[in-house]
Automatic annotation (TrEMBL):
Belongs to the AOR/FOR family. Residues 4-209 form the Aldehyde ferredoxin oxidoreductase N-terminal domain. It comes from the Archaea. One of its GO terms (molecular function) is electron transfer activity. Its cofactor is [4Fe-4S] cluster; tungstopterin. It comes from Vulcanisaeta moutnovskia (strain 768-28). The keyword Phosphoprotein does not apply. Keywords: 4Fe-4S, Iron, Iron-sulfur, Metal-binding, Oxidoreductase. Pfam families: AFOR_C, AFOR_N. InterPro entries: Ald_Fedxn_OxRdtase_dom2, Ald_Fedxn_OxRdtase_dom3, Ald_Fedxn_OxRdtase_N, Ald_Fedxn_OxRdtase_N_sf, OxRdtase_Ald_Fedxn_C, Tungsten_al_ferr_oxy-like_C, W-dependent_AOR. The keyword Oxidoreductase applies. This is Aldehyde ferredoxin oxidoreductase. The lineage of its organism: Archaea, Thermoproteota, Thermoprotei, Thermoproteales, Thermoproteaceae. Gene3D superfamilies: Aldehyde Ferredoxin Oxidoreductase Protein, subunit A, domain 2, Aldehyde Ferredoxin Oxidoreductase Protein, subunit A, domain 3, Aldehyde ferredoxin oxidoreductase, N-terminal domain.
Length: 593
């Protein structure tokens, strides 16, 4: 098949064996790759959600690229990890940029399915579709960056995945590190990798070409999209300020979550402003994923050298906790990445403990803005020591343990990102219906709200629901082809069609691609058994107002109910939020009975 290496590699760590099989062309057409194909593999394994221990041998850790991986089409060097999350206890996924999406293909695989548990720490080296099992006991205990640097002394031209102490100690929101500062961030892939005693996975290329169906169309797209990636008005801000520029936007528009979701403008936020502080005083250079001309990553000065800072981490470890000293915030972010944390969940969890301490519910928590206390708690969480043992549970489990469930801010067990839905109301629906939980990238509704589309940021009507569903569908394809979601300004439906057809030769129509996206979205919900009960949002968003520009804002029950129920109607779900039988049949998830 064009665009694919044509190989799924199965690795059983308990038995220390592997097997390879080809990719079914029908599945490739219906589910593409990445998130879609990974979910399909789990679905075909008939693994009942409630029967799988996230830390058990039977939980598959699936790493997969897509048909665009390894091509020179801009913003396509991504990969996906699919697994049962130890944080949310749901089938989940994460994506990463860097070099992995290309180097998996160059190493001769589209998908790696890892099951079992190694009896000792192991380093998997994959090349030419084969696996070498290496002893990793000398790597165990190193942080993510140290581990990668050791491996790259031998495999200089490679893509490396690593875990840090947080993953080794199975903190449920541990991530998998890649290319120093990129991560499979959300929902705990690092903890799953650690539970299998896998310290690192290295992909070594044997060639660097991808067979495409229509070379002329492909070359034209590479050139045209390369130009658009740096000139399109929707892309220029990413090149100029990356994601960190949103610190200014979020505080200026009043959606920057602060002091554990009690404010939408951070006190002293100008101290960590991109334009006022970081750019003139800390910025060193731009960074980019492989073959990407946008270079949205902003590398800044840290106490240890250089660090790739991004917006969500600044909100979570700065806004939510009250840290507004730029150097200290950068250093906390670097520490968290090295230890192998999802910084969004980490910052939310630490801020929740500060909040509970402030209310007298727990003792020994740090105070707002307490750099030393927060730093020590981050370290203790990675090693599950002292208060870190409680922090290692994640926000939902902490709230349940302390019998304060209404105080925690999460959806489906996942802590939210940096867009308060009380002032960006498309995020009500985004957070509610995401299968990962409070996941801003499930439907990227913040982009609709910030741009003032579909009635503006405070609109909650049908036009807003439909606009969010459109991006939700494109995002499902971006996660499966794989494409960076920051390219949404140039990767419209017609461009998605043209790119997929030039590479795969499948001759998709836009309607077929929309149906494919719907299939991926609905399959995920069906596999998790999600209902309206799981789509509820935190009570504090409904009852506690935030103040911005002299006005107070909450999410009303009516806003949540209308948006969710209208979504169910348009998506083909019943009133409880379950996919209807006719929807499952229409999308070829189930056959006609």
């Amino acid at each position: 098949m064009h665009g694919y290496a044509g190989r799924i590699l199965w690795i059983n760590l308990s038995r220390n064996n592997t097997r390879a099989e080809g990719i079914n062309e029908g599945n490739a057409r219906l589910f593409i790759g990445g998130r879609g194909l990974g979910l399909k593999i789990i679905f075909d394994l008939n693994l009942g959600l409630n029967n799988i221990d996230p830390y058990g041998a039977e939980n598959p850790l699936i790493i997969t690229t897509g048909p665009l991986g390894g091509t020179r089409i801009p913003l396509t060097t991504r990969a996906a990890a699919i697994f049962k999350s130890p944080l949310t206890n749901r089938w989940s996924y994460s994506t990463v940029g860097g070099t992995l999406g290309a180097y998996m293909k160059y190493a001769g695989v589209d998908v790696v399915v890892i099951t079992g548990i190694s009896p000792r720490p192991v380093h998997l080296v994959i090349s030419d579709g084969r696996v070498e099992f290496r002893d990793a006991r000398e790597l165990w205990g190193l942080d993510t960056v140290e581990t990668e640097h050791v491996i790259k002394r031998e495999f200089r031209d490679s893509a490396v995945l690593t875990i840090g102490p947080a993953g080794e100690n199975k903190v449920p929101y541990a991530c998998i590190g890649h290319e120093d500062w990129r991560q499979f961030g959300r929902t705990g892939a690092g903890a799953v990798m650690g539970s299998k005693n896998v310290k690192a996975i290295t992909f070594v290329p044997v060639g660097k070409t991808v067979d495409v169906a229509d070379d002329k169309a492909y070359q034209d797209l590479v050139r045209n999209l390369g130009r658009q990636a740096v000139t399109n008005p929707g892309m220029v801000p990413y090149r100029q300020g990356g994601t960190v520029r949103l610190v200014d936007t979020g505080n200026g528009m009043g959606f920057f979550p602060s002091i554990y979701w009690t404010r939408v403008v951070m006190p002293n936020w100008e101290n960590i402003s991109w334009e006022k502080t970081l750019k003139p005083k800390y910025f060193i250079k731009n960074g980019a994923c492989l073959y990407c001309p946008v270079a949205c990553h902003k590398v800044v000065r840290s106490s240890d050298g250089e660090y790739d800072l991004e917006y969500e981490t600044m909100m979570a470890l700065g806004g939510l906790t009250g840290i507004h000293d730029p150097q200290r915030l950068i250093d906390l972010a670097e520490l968290a990445d090295r230890l192998g944390f999802d910084t969004i969940s980490l910052g939310n969890t630490i801020a929740f403990l500060i909040y509970l301490g402030d209310k007298g519910i727990i003792k020994d928590a740090p105070k707002w803005g307490d750099y030393e206390g927060i730093k020590q708690l981050i370290i203790n969480t990675a090693y599950r020591r002292g208060l870190g043992e409680l922090a290692a549970l994640g926000t939902k489990a902490i709230a349940e343990k302390l019998s304060v469930p209404d105080l925690a801010i999460h959806v489906k067990g996942l802590e939210p990102a940096a867009y308060d839905p009380r002032t960006l109301k498309g995020m009500i629906l985004n957070n509610a219906i995401s299968e990962r939980g409070a996941d801003h990238l499930w439907a990227s509704a913040y982009a609709v709200d910030i741009a003032g589309q579909a009635g503006g940021r405070f609109a909650t009507g049908e036009d807003k629901v439909r606009a969010i569903m459109d991006i939700e569908e494109r995002n499902a394809l971006y996660d499966s082809m794989l494409l960076c979601k920051f390219g949404r300004a140039i990767y419209t439906w017609d461009v998605i069609r043209d790119v997929m057809n030039a590479v795969t030769g499948f001759n998709y129509t836009i309607d077929e691609l929309r149906e494919t996206a719907q299939r991926i979205i609905v399959l995920h919900r069906y596999m998790n058994g999600t209902t309206i009960e799981q789509d509820k949002i935190p009570p504090r968003w409904l009852r506690e107002p935030v103040e911005y520009d002299g006005k107070k804002y909450v999410v009303t029950e009516e806003e949540w109910s209308f948006m969710v129920r209208k979504y169910y109607e348009l998506r083909g779900y019943d009133e409880l939020g379950k996919p209807r039988q006719d929807t499952l049949v229409r999308l070829k998830i189930l056959s006609q009975s």
